[in-house]
Design a protein that fits this description.
Length: about 450
Amino acid sequence: LDQIQKVDGQIHAFLSYDVADALAQAEAADKALAAGETHVQRPLLGVPIAIKDVLAVKNHPLNCASKILGKFTSVYDATAIEKLKAAGAVVFGRLNMDEFAMGSSTENSAFGVTRNPWDTTRIPGGSSGGSAASVAADECIASLGTDTGGSIRQPAALCGCVGLKPTYGRISRYGLVAFASSLDQIGPFTKDVRDSATLLEVMSGIDHRDSTSVPQPVPHYHTALNGNIKGLKIGLPKEYMIGGLDPQVNAAVQAAVQQLQKLGAEVVEISLPHTDYAVATYYIIATAEASANLARFDGIRYGARIDGKDPIELYSKTRGAGFGPEVKRRIILGTYVLSSGYYDAYYLRAQKVRTLIRQDFLKAFEKVDAIVTPTTPTAAFKIGEKSDDPLQMYLSDIFTISCNLAGICGLSLPCGFTTSPKLPIGLQLLGKPFGEETILKIAHAYE
Ligand code: GLN
């Protein structure tokens, strides 16, 4: 709390936090420890974890960094939050983000931008910018974010922390405000790989309240962290060596690859031939799903309302004033690609290409245990640099988006810095469906 007091005026990672509530939870953890409970039984006992403003925490505000939710307060805990609490965590604070998780820089928040702790003239990444910045600025031990097309891995890379997007279905999405339901996953931001494994283990598992959660047993991820990656095969996709890749990012990733080889991994070139179509495919599927999911914010059921002479006027006034420009852009795009006459040409086609992208990965994983790439083409850019150019902004997710389309798992971990200015660089590891153990093992051996 002292650290938040000291630095958050500059960083603005938090939208709000409740001191009394945090202290009460911490006191309860102290009492449990004094009564003989241990971290074996409750691995997160007393650990402060802050939450992206898109996840429901009972009695806490929930705004998705949007004006449309007004003074909305959650009436229940998301499953992931329930599990953190059961493991003893002190769940506190609401972290800034791009409105409804749409963006790559946290500049789309209705409540102001979050700044990168390494250089406060730069963006922290997005959409989980507050989640990454709060961990990087030592304002919490760990945080939760969500990743629909890179929103955990990209800000983790730009702020120099570890960010994990689990396999689709690994963690229940119950209590997560949906952006694109077939792509969204909850995941942890941590200072190291071991913490990432701990949080993943606590939050994973089947949940009858989310029919897309999968009845796959939850491994003890820690036991995989033994440093031994001898003989593992890691693929380097040739399609990721694109023109816009910053030379310093490229050099850091190449050095990391050499380090992995020194540790005994075998690195081979692979091909993911449909990579070029990932960004276009994503922006059709994600906007289509978003336009349907966001229909519920109508001024009747949740949050803010502006009255009108009839329901239609009420809806349009509320939505017109409540949603920011990027959210409106996506709703319009999404309703367009779903409209009759265009559905087959855009949405259906995108679904087919999505299958091809997934097949690329499944084929590659017949030959390799994991895939290594840069997380982002460049280090953190300046605030305002891309905010007027949505296409440039969309392209900054070029390395992270395919993972969500394929439903596989991925993580980003620090692999060096650029020089003047000194900014963190992220290494991305992609794993098979439910192959989190392998990417955590590799990341831990490298770290
Ligand atoms: N930057 C991407 C987008 O704007 C991804 C966002 C996300 O993962 N939530 O859609």
